[in-house]
């Protein structure tokens, strides 16, 4: 099939809900993708942070293939080994106590919201259900998670939205306290606001927030849909902030390309969701769980240290370009934001990078976001950096 034939098929038979780039992907290897005619692309996007082990990783392929031959699905009415082993690894490596498996980030965040409201209802009764989130946050595209998102641009079209959210300023505990009250049950944060512009939260703010939430018995919820599973240089980002949240969501990179997500709860919250209060048909799917186990087996301490080194390499190289269009470079691990100066035509820069076969993302109003596969090689990074330098310095 030619690119034009594929594009025509898409336009005729799929809802046009995505502003797709003029790129068709056929296959990949490592952190390099290939088009229908064999053209190469250096991937600084990884399926929006999903392809944690890149493409064609032998251990991942083997795990998926072996599990596909054995059992694809059995439902959560029965026990299967892969999800149980995965839950064990997640808990033992994070200090959390129990896991609920879902399929995508929005669904996971719906689950964490339900957990928080039920915790409060069980302990205090009705009337304590409001969740405080942060301005610039992004938590999903369901009716509920859109309203949990602290960006007004998402609060349109789909009225009425689920009520029960108020928004505070990031890194401002007084602002959080002002938005909380007797009706509050939880505070929900991203430790690095990804869609908001790759904005890491201040560590002192987060630790003080955690202590305050504990005093008030508000659950501290951390959305790690994008920051988790090695992306920021530790298995989960909260481990760099020296906190143990009440509940944490994960998705994207967990299964290396297959749909999987979930909620981890601490000991206080492990038994909040009981039979009949929450469920999902495909959660803990054996093939996705086997893939996730392959991902976690690769993400040992040495691997995660390498993620940090690669992230610093990218940031230092980009900062050294001294491009007139760049304001700053920020992020954690291999979650990097190139913040452009006001007035710079970001769309033109992104198109120029795609024309050079470098795949990148955007975030917030003026940031180019890099989320490469965690296995990206220095050769692949250097190829991408060469194009980035040419495009940014020529802007």
Individual helix count? 12
- Strand percentage lies at 15-25%
Strand line-up across the major sheet: 4-12-11-10-7-5-6
Radius of gyration: 21 Å
Fraction of residues in helix: 25-40%
What best-fitting shape do the alpha-carbon axes yield? Answer: globular
Mean pLDDT score, rounded?
Answer: 98
Query: What is the tally of beta strands?
Result: 17
Structural class: alpha/beta
Rounded to the nearest angstrom, the distance between the terminal CA atoms is: 36 Å
Most strands sheet: 7 strands, mixed
Low-confidence stretches: none
Q: What is the N-to-C order of secondary-structure elements (H for helix, E for strand)?
A: HEEEHHHEHEHEHEEEHEEEHHEEHEEEH
Question: In terms of topology, how is this protein built?
Answer:
Blueprint: H1 3-13, E1 27-29, E2 32-34, E3 40-43, H2 46-49, H3 58-70, H4 81-94, E4 98-102, H5 105-124, E5 130-134, H6 143-148, E6 165-168, H7 173-179, E7 184-189, E8 192-193, E9 199-200, H8 203-216, E10 219-224, E11 247-250, E12 261-265, H9 286-298, H10 301-320, E13 326-332, E14 335-340, H11 346-355, E15 358-359, E16 361-363, E17 367-370, H12 378-393
Parallel strand pairs: 3-15, 5-6, 5-7, 7-10, 10-11
Antiparallel strand pairs: 1-2, 2-3, 4-12, 8-9, 11-12, 13-14, 14-17, 16-17
Helix pairs in contact: 3-9, 4-9, 10-12
Structure description:
There is one protein chain. By secondary structure, the protein is α/β, with parallel strands linked by helices. It contains 12 helices and 17 strands. A 7-stranded mixed β-sheet has the order 4-12-11-10-7-5-6, sandwiched between helices. A 4-stranded mixed β-sheet has the order 1-2-3-15. Strands 13-14-17-16 form a 4-stranded antiparallel β-sheet, with helices on one face. The model has no long low-confidence stretch (mean pLDDT 98).
């Amino acid at each position: 099939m030619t690119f034009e034939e594929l594009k025509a098929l898409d336009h005729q038979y799929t809802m046009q809900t995505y502003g797709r780039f003029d790129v068709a992907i056929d296959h990949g290897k490592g952190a390099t993708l290939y088009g229908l005619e064999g053209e190469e692309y250096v991937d600084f996007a990884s399926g929006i942070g999903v392809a944690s082990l890149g493409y064609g990783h032998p251990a991942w392929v083997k795990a998926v293939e072996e599990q596909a031959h054995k059992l694809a699905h059995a439902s959560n009415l029965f026990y299967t080994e892969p999800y149980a082993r995965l839950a064990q690894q997640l808990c033992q490596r994070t200090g959390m106590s129990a896991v609920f498996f879902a399929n995508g980030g929005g669904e996971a965040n719906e689950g964490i919201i339900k957990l928080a409201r039920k915790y409060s209802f069980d302990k205090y009764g009705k009337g304590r259900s409001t969740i405080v989130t942060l301005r610039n946050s992004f938590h999903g595209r369901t009716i509920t998670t859109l309203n949990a998102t602290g960006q007004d641009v998402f609060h349109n079209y789909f009225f009425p939205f689920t009520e029960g959210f108020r928004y505070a300023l990031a890194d401002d505990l007084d602002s959080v306290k002002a938005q909380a009250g007797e009706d509050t049950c939880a505070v929900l944060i991203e430790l690095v606001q990804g869609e908001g512009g790759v904005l890491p939260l201040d560590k002192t703010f987060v630790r003080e927030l955690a202590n305050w939430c504990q005093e008030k018995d508000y659950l501290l919820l951390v959305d790690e849909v994008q920051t988790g599973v090695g992306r920021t240089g530790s298995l989960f980002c909260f481990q760099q902030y020296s906190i143990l949240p009440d509940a944490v969501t994960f998705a994207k990179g967990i299964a290396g390309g297959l749909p999987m997500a979930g909620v981890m709860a601490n000991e206080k919250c492990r038994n909040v969701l009981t039979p009949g209060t929450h469920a999902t048909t495909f959660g803990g799917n054996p093939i996705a769980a086997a893939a996730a186990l392959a991902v976690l087996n690769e993400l040992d301490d040495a691997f995660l240290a390498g993620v940090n080194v690669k992230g610093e390499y990218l940031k230092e190289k980009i900062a050294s370009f001294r491009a007139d269009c760049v304001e700053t470079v920020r992020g954690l691990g291999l979650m990097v934001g190139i913040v452009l100066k006001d007035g710079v035509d970001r769309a033109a820069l992104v198109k120029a990078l795609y024309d050079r076969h470098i795949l990148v993302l955007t975030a917030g109003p003026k940031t180019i976001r890099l989320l490469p596969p965690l296995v990206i090689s220095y050769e692949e990074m250097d190829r991408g950096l060469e194009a980035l330098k040419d495009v940014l310095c020529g802007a």
